[in-house]
Structures are given as C-alpha cells and as structure tokens.
Amino acid sequence: MNKEKRIEIFKRLQANNPNPTTELNFNTPFELLIAVLLSAQATDISVNKATKELFAVANTPDTMFALGADKVKEKIKTIGLFNTKAENIIKTCKILVEEYGSQIPENREALESLPGVGRKTANVVLNTAFKWPTIAVDTHIFRVANRTKLAPGKDVVAVEEKLLKVVPKEYMLDCHHWLILHGRYTCVARKPRCMSCIIEDLCEFKEKTSL
Ligand code: SF4
User: Fold this and answer.
1) Which CATH number covers residue 68?
2) Are 156 and 136 in contact (CB under 8 A)?
3) Which ranges form a coiled coil (predicted)?
4) What is the distance in A from the centroid of ligand 1 to the CA of 54?
5) What is the pLDDT of residues 46-102, one digit of tens each?
6) Which of 129, 148, 175 is the last residue of a domain?
7) What is the model's pTM?
C-alpha cells in the first residue's frame, strides 16, 4: 500500500471519529491497567461490568492489595481466567505499593515486569493513560492491518513494527483506537462489512464481501 492511501485511510478514520478512546471504563491509570489486565480473552462489556463492582470497593494499589486475592476473585468471577487474573492483580499491586510509591510507572520495562502485564497491556497503558504514540496490536488490529495491506506482518510484533514505521506521525497517538474500532465493528473477523466500510476503495483486501 502506498503512502497516499495510508494518509487517506487515517484522514477518513479521524473524520469519522475525531477523539477515539478505549471502550474500557476507567478514571485513573491504575484503573486502566487493571481493566486491560482483565480484558485478555474477555469482552470490554464483561470487564466493565466486573470493574464497576471491583473499583467501587478498591481502585488504588493499596486498597486492592488490602482487599486480597479471594475478594478480588469474587468480584471478577464472571470473567475468563479470573483466578489467575486475580492472583496477578494482587502481585502487581504489591509491587506497585512497595517499589513505585503506589503509582503506575510511565516506563515500558517497569510495566512489562509486572505480573500479568505483557507488551500489549503496557502499550495500551502508555498510549491511553500517558499519551505515548504506541500501538498495541491485538487480534482486531492484526486482522485489519493484514487485510487492508496497511501494515502486513506475520505476527503481532511484526505488525506493530510496521505500523510504527508507516503511520504518519500526526495519526500515531490515535491509530491504535481507530484500528481496533474498525476491526471490532466493520472489518469483523468472519464476514467483513465491506459495503459499509468507509475505506473500502482504499483497502487492498482481495476477498471483499458484498455485505
Ligand atoms: S473493505 Fe472490507 S476488508 Fe477492507 S477494511 Fe473494509 S471491511 Fe475490512
């Protein structure tokens, strides 16, 4: 895909949604970190339901750590992998309290060293809470980048590297949210909705649908 097409894609995505953000509910970097940690293999809607209850009783590293793993499990038991996620949340809170003054570190290495926090979660926190121009490649972005040929790659790291190379600077901060939303609602996994896609004429996918 050439540069002009890429620019036009982002122009349209921006015009369609000038201020995109995550669909996870959060008020602080800590709440965002916990929500993203819970969102692995779970829908944003299910995470929002659980965090509404959880954050009502604990929304800081100190209060969450004091709550303890069993009570966290109770609050998030509707979410997949809740046992492991609750254990990781408590371990992460302990480290935040003991090593980071109960703050979320604005530092990739420090974030990725927290239990349950991988590259994708760190990227989301750096981008959404701290406004770093990072791109967290999830299943939606991976699909959209490959189908459109915007940034093809064999795995999520390759797609992330390619996006960082080719996305114009002025679109980098919001790129992650535009592509996720596009993949979630238009360029969906089974049958992309090509007929109602605002970038259909720019997309280089060979098997566009007539939906
Ligand atoms: S035209 Fe179809 S395949 Fe291409 S981005 Fe749009 S929905 Fe996805």
Assistant:
1) 1.10.340.30
2) no
3) none
4) 37
5) 999 999 999 999 999 999 999 999 999 999 999 989 999 999 999 999 999 999 999
6) 129
7) 0.88
